[in-house]
Amino acid sequence: MKILAISDIHGKRSENLINYLKKEDISLVLIAGDITDFKLEGYDDPLDFVKPFIDELVEEADVDVFAIPGNCDPAGICNAIKESGPDEKPAFCLHNQLIAYENVVIMGYGGSNPTPFNTPGEIDDDKIYLHVYELLAEYDYIGNDSIPRVTILLTHAPPYDTKADTIESGAHVGSQGVKKPIHEFQPNINICGHVHEACSIDKVGNTTIANPGILEENHAVLIEVNEDASYNVEIVEL
């Protein structure tokens, strides 16, 4: 099974993305937030971009779509995600949710730790920690070790002090609230976004951290999962 992760769309569709999805036989697309932006040309409400963007992915490439909000997405973003996709293949808002998909379990948490820009989807880092901890703890409690599964934590904010949260100055701007529960539970993979220039793969303990960067730069993260729950994670060019 192939899963493609993208982030930081910011209201710009991508023909390269559509072509890649068709060519590579992707089953699932994960969107790590910031689907919209504060103002979008051609849209009275930025949320009006969400459905046509996701509908195109589903209808043109026959993929499932799971998405979380970013810090730039306004209130109502989860409803906009859930109203996207055809009736027989609706998109799913994974914010503060856990879902099984074949032999993968995906846990999602959107928004970001506070920024200097006072964006609508900012969350106190202590609150992020509490909610991400509870998601990972829930699966840790109910998970069956005899059934091999790949665990993916989908967040908008990258974990602090990694390649995925490094801005151009070299400073780290990620979330301790994401990093601490990763240390504690060690999910297999953390897909994140938020920091556009930090397209990278890194490690926190045994967890692979992957940030595809801003979609406009035509990068994504490809996750290939085998029947035995072995997997590979790589940055791909669209």
Automatic annotation (TrEMBL):
Domain of life: Archaea
Coiled-coil zones: none
Gene3D superfamilies in alphabetical order: 3.60.21.10
Species whose genome carries this gene: Methanobrevibacter ruminantium (strain ATCC 35063 / DSM 1093 / JCM 13430 / OCM 146 / M1) (Methanobacterium ruminantium)
Domain Calcineurin-like phosphoesterase, residue spans: 1-197
Protein name in UniProt: Calcineurin-like phosphoesterase
GO molecular function annotation: hydrolase activity
